[in-house]
Amino acid sequence: MSLALIGLTGSRKWTDVPLLENTLILVWHEALEVGYSGIELIHGHARDGADAMGDAWAVANGVLRRRLPADWEGPCGPECQPGHRKPKRNGRTYCPLAGHRRNQQIIDEQPLLMVAAQVNNSTGTADCIRRARAAGIPVHRITG
């Protein structure tokens, strides 16, 4: 049997731990019911919010996880316009499109389902939802 790859996207402002955990448990049980041996959680590895909560839940429940952090300070992609980088407090710059590139990386892994924990139509989460739907990946959206 194989593991069902489940994507997680969500706002850094997500605070509803029980709702997120209950949703992940539901998805896990649904995967078992259709014949998977379990799930693997893939997410963008933000330090706080939905990604951090989902990662902690996976660790606590023995669920494999795959972290794909955005490379904010790394090189820009071909879609980037000259001069679009933003300054950081430490004097370095970051690419504001790095999160969108990371979202596409998650979608390119072809998860069976995306869990989207969205607060106030957060733009990064909305981008990942749009990309998932365009790729034909079902989205289980929860709001907080």
Task: Report on the architecture of this protein.
By secondary structure, the chain is an alpha/beta fold. The protein has one domain (3-73, 88-143): 3-Layer(aba) Sandwich (Rossmann fold), CATH 3.40.50.450. It has helices at residues 17-33, 50-60, 98-108, 123-134; strands at 3-10, 38-43, 64-67, 86-87, 93-94, 113-118, 139-143. β2 (38-43), α2 (50-60) and β3 form a beta-alpha-beta unit.
How many domains?
A: 1
Mean pLDDT metric: 95
Number of strands: 7
User: Helices and strands: which structural class?
Assistant: alpha/beta
Would you list the SSEs in sequence order as H and E? Answer: EHEHEEEHEHE
**Biggest sheet: strand arrangement:** 3-2-1-6-7
Spans with pLDDT under 50 lasting ≥5 residues? Answer: none
Major sheet attributes: 5 strands, parallel
Q: What is the CA-based Rg, rounded? A: 16 Å
| Number of helical segments with 4 or more residues | 4
> Can you give the helix content as a percent range?
25-40%
Beta content comes to: 15-25%
CATH topology: Rossmann fold
Proper CATH architecture: 3-Layer(aba) Sandwich
CATH level 1 class label: Alpha Beta
Distance between the termini: 35 Å
Overall form: globular
